[in-house]
Amino acid sequence: GNSVTQMEGPVTLSEEAFLTINCTYTATGYPSLFWYVQYPGEGLQLLLKATKADDKGSNKGFEATYRKETTSFHLEKGSVQVSDSAVYFCALSDGTGANSKLTFGKGITLSVRP
Amino acid sequence: DGGITQSPKYLFRKEGQNVTLSCEQNLNHDAMYWYRQDPGQGLRLIYYSQIVNDFQKGDIAEGYSVSREKKESFPLTVTSAQKNPTAFYLCASSFSYGYTFGSGTRLTVV
């Protein structure tokens, strides 16, 4: 079956530091890949996505590239802010529209200190 | 604005009681999902529905039940058979590559 593996957390960084959160996946076929962010007490918000190999998703200074050869979708940001403190989930979808299901990694908590 | 509404935000249940969590969407999405979130375990799929009057079990369906009588609504019942129901429950809907999540219901058994 499908699975998503995220690096162990939590992660604590100083403001303006470089961020990398690793994500690898196992899936049959060609899944779509996602990063979601969850702020305290809230639901999940889509941060970025990539639907095919070598696609780069980007949003709010975050980037991730779909690497089929290494089955990875690592999240990066050049300079984090305190407001980026949240839980980050990597996920994959094995289809489109009503025929799809999301499989999530365990999530990682990021804390950014001033 | 279109979105997903989950209610209530906080819910307390006595042991042995059934409780129903509400999920309503006005996005006209065909597919809807229920996930359970526990600390350190990510999100696990409970049930999903791809079309009205049809639904499928996810990875952890035991102790839960759902219905999908209307496109807009996908309520989740946590039954007394669920041995460890205290968790954060998230509802989602999808169309094409877009998934939209509600703000969640935190269920606590007292």
Summarize it.
Chain A has 114 residues and is mainly β. Helix content of chain A is 0%, strand content 50%.
Describe this structure as you would to a colleague.
The complex is a heterodimer of chains A (114) and B (110). Chain A has 114 residues and is mostly beta strands. Chain A has strands at residues 3-6, 11-14, 19-21, 23-26, 32-38, 44-50, 56-59, 62-65, 75-77, 86-93, 102-104, 108-113. In chain A, β10 and β11 (102-104) form a beta hairpin. Chain A is globular. Chain B is built from no helices and eleven strands. In chain B, β4 (31-38) and β5 form a beta hairpin. Chain B has 110 residues and is mostly beta strands. Helices cover 0% and strands 55% of the residues of chain B. The chains are: A mainly beta (114), B mainly beta (110). Chain A binds chain B through residues 32, 34, 36, 41-46, 49, 51, 89, 93, 96-107, and chain B through 4, 6, 30-31, 33, 35, 40-45, 48, 50-51, 58, 90, 92, 94-99, 101-104.
Write the layout of secondary structure elements.
The complex is a heterodimer of chains A (114) and B (110).
Chain A: E1 3-6, E2 11-14, E3 19-21, E4 23-26, E5 32-38, E6 44-50, E7 56-59, E8 62-65, E9 75-77, E10 86-93, E11 102-104, E12 108-113
Chain B: E1 4-7, E2 10-13, E3 19-25, E4 31-38, E5 42-51, E6 54-57, E7 64-66, E8 76-78, E9 87-95, E10 98-101, E11 105-109
Parallel strand pairs in B: 2-11
Antiparallel strand pairs in B: 1-3, 3-8, 4-5, 4-9, 5-6, 7-8, 9-10, 9-11
How is the biggest beta sheet of chain A arranged?
6 strands, mixed
The DSSP helix count of chain A reads: 0
How is the quaternary structure best described? heterodimer
Most extensive chain interface and residues per partner:
A-B, 25 and 28 residues
- What is the approximate shape of chain A? globular
Principal-axes geometry of chain B comes out as globular
Q: What average pLDDT do the residues of chain A reach?
A: 92
Q: Decide which structural class fits the backbone of chain A.
A: mainly beta
Q: Tell me the helix content of chain A.
A: under 10%
Q: Evaluate the radius of gyration of chain A.
A: 14 Å
Structural class of chain B comes to mainly beta
Mean pLDDT of chain B: 92
- Write the element-wise H/E pattern of chain A from the N-terminal end onward: EEEEEEEEEEEE
User: Regions of chain B with pLDDT < 50 over 5+ consecutive residues?
Assistant: none
Number of helical stretches of at least 4 residues of chain B: 0
H/E element sequence of chain B: EEEEEEEEEEE
Q: Percent of residues of chain B in helical segments?
A: under 10%
